[in-house]
Automatic annotation (TrEMBL):
Subcellular location(s) of the protein: Mitochondrion matrix; Mitochondrion outer membrane
Keyword Transit peptide applies: yes
Recorded metabolic or biological pathway in which this protein acts: Cofactor biosynthesis; ubiquinone biosynthesis
Keywords: Acetylation, Membrane, Mitochondrion, Mitochondrion outer membrane, NADP, Neurogenesis, Nucleotide-binding, Oxidoreductase, Transit peptide, Ubiquinone biosynthesis
Protein name, as recorded: NAD(P)H oxidoreductase RTN4IP1, mitochondrial
A family per Pfam: ADH_zinc_N_2
Ranges for domain Enoyl reductase (ER): 38-379
Organism: Nicator chloris
Length: 385
């Protein structure tokens, strides 16, 4: 699917239809927004959010059927990463006096294409699609959302919109960590020992399934009440981090070829000792100080501090015979194409903790804020009335 996408984009063909905004452009739509950063009380429902407009030829407008929440939505609601995200939104500072508000949260979308820009030939109105919208763009807790064509993929045929909305952001985050940063793929995973720390959350449950689809041996760390779920997803060994000293438990096992860390904190102080030395073994963490550094120190100093930190840690561990890496979510329609194939072949399934109606968005945030999620928190947007 990704190859076909590339060929069609490269062909230079354009649809006969003229580039234009949606017929409803300039009108309002229902949306959940924030006007300032803070806790849950900053969430506000409005029916007057500006309807999205196609500004670039490669964009599409999607009617949102379902969305879902991720920990980044909680963080963004509180202002985490605002400095870096605002720089990405307006790198040349052309919009003087304007702010990012009102800001719509939500990164996942499953829905139907309503309008296509002039340069989009891979999709057409009526196509059922899914996507993960980058955090510097307006989000998906809204009736419609704009996405770049290269961020969008055809929804897996075997999933409903509610089910599909649970996968894009966590799937692409795990894919980034395991495949694009970690170098793992279907042809090199067989027999490799993989350790996943924080295996019962959205990224963890996806990572367990992806590694099993690629024939790896998976050791998953989670709490006891999530162990049954993680075992059903295919994990070979499940370790309860509450049942004793986790480091000691893991050191009784054979060494690992790869570690995915969704937990962070003090974990990386000892986790890299669990890797096979001088064998190409890799530790990848999704918990990094990049956005925090920029919030605290500003753009220039924050980037400098981040570079120094990752550089020093990489060199330190390389000298000990293991690779140390950071990974981030990366939007990618072609990667979602590959994920969709795995879903339709039955190798990956969505893991949904709870589904809320559109009117219950604040309640859904509180659910996510409570922690200990077993999969994803999904919002049915289309059935809002």
């Amino acid at each position: 699917a990704a190859g076909g996408r590339a060929l069609r984009w490269a062909s230079g063909r354009t649809p006969a239809r003229e580039l234009r905004a949606s017929p409803r452009a300039g009108t309002a739509m229902p949306s959940w927004v924030i006007d300032r950063y803070g806790s849950n009380e900053v969430l506000r429902f409005t029916r007057d959010m500006m309807f999205p407009i196609i500004h670039f030829p490669n964009e599409v407008i999607i009617k949102v059927h379902a969305a879902s929440l991720n920990p980044i939505d909680l963080s963004m609601r509180s202002g985490y990463g605002a400095t870096a995200l605002n720089m990405k939104r307006d790198p040349l500072k052309l919009k003087t006096g304007e702010t990012e508000f009102p800001l719509t949260l939500g990164r996942d979308v499953s829905g139907v294409v309503m309008e296509c820009g002039l340069g989009v030939s891979y999709f057409k109105p009526g196509d059922e699609v899914w996507a993960a919208i980058p955090p510097w763009k307006q989000g998906t807790l809204s009736e419609f959302v704009v996405a770049s064509g290269n961020e969008v993929s055809f929804k897996p045929k075997c999933l409903s919109h509610t089910e599909a909305a649970a996968l894009p952001y966590v799937g692409l985050t795990a894919w980034s960590a395991l495949n694009q940063v970690g170098g793992l793929n279907q042809s090199n995973c067989s027999g490799k020992r993989i350790l996943i720390l924080g295996a019962s959350g959205g990224v963890g449950t996806f990572a367990v399934q992806l590694m099993k689809a690629w024939d790896a041996h998976v050791t998953a760390v989670c709490s006891h009440d999530a162990s049954t779920l993680v075992e059903k997803l295919g994990a070979d060994d499940v370790i309860d981090y509450k049942s004793g000293n986790l480091e000691k438990q893991l050191k009784t096992l054979p060494l690992f070829d790869f570690i995915l860390d969704n937990v962070g904190g003090s974990t990386e102080k000892w986790a890299l000792d669990l890797l096979k030395k001088w064998s190409g073994a890799t530790y990848v963490t999704l918990v990094t100080p990049f956005l925090i550094n920029m919030d605290k120190l500003g753009v220039a100093d924050g980037m400098l501090q981040t570079g120094v930190t990752v550089g020093s840690k990489t060199l330190k561990h390389l000298l000990k015979g293991v690779h140390y890496r950071w990974a981030f979510f990366m939007p990618s329609g072609p990667c979602l194409d590959e994920i969709a194939e795995l879903v339709d072949s039955g190798k990956i399934q969505p893991v949904i903790d709870e589904v809320f109606s559109f009117s219950e968005v604040p309640k859904a945030f509180l659910k996510l804020e409570g922690g200990h999620a077993r999969g994803k928190t999904v919002i049915n947007v289309l059935s809002r009335q």
